[in-house]
Amino acid sequence: MPTSEGQGIARTAWLAYVGAVNKVTGPAIMKVAGPAVTQIAAGQIVDLVGFWVVWHLHGGFEGLQDLGMSRASIFRKIAKFRRVFHVHPDEFTLEGVTLDVEAYLKAYSKEV
After folding, report:
1. Residue 57's closest CA among 34, 20, 89?
2. How confident is the model at residue 5 (pLDDT cuts 50, 70, 90)?
3. Are 47 and 80 in contact, with CB atoms under 8 Å apart?
């Protein structure tokens, strides 16, 4: 169905190409660079989970700006978060993790 983004023809072709390339190159790349890829991926996940924590502890977009993050950096982090977790940081939940914003702010205000 036509949308403002088009009919999805280019996207469909791109996904087919990526799928075909990954079938051939994916196993070879993982054999050669697997440990490095895993290490880099782990670092990226830790970074994004940290972003999610700070996002919630400081009240989202405006709170991050108050901490000194630029709008562009925040938008980049949100976009990366969505690519990895397929959801906005506001909507993401991490099983087993609860954030006590009130306790955090109480402790944080003592240091400032």
Report:
1. 89
2. low
3. no
Q: What angle do CA 14, 19, 25 make, to 5 degrees?
A: 120
Q: What is the pTM of this model?
A: 0.66
Name, in order, each residue with C-beta under 8 angstroms of 45's C-beta and a sequence gap of 6 or more: 84
Residue 6's φ and ψ, nearest 5 degrees, are: 110, -165
DSSP alpha helix (H) spans, the chain: 9-57, 61-67, 71-85, 101-111
Instruction: Dump pLDDT digits (tens) for 43-81.
Output: 899 999 999 999 999 999 999 999 999 999 999 999 999
Contact 85, 45 (CB under 8 A): no
Q: What Å distances lie between residue 64 and 12, 16, 50, 54, 89, CA to CA? A: 36, 38, 12, 8, 13
Over range 28-48, report the average pLDDT. 79
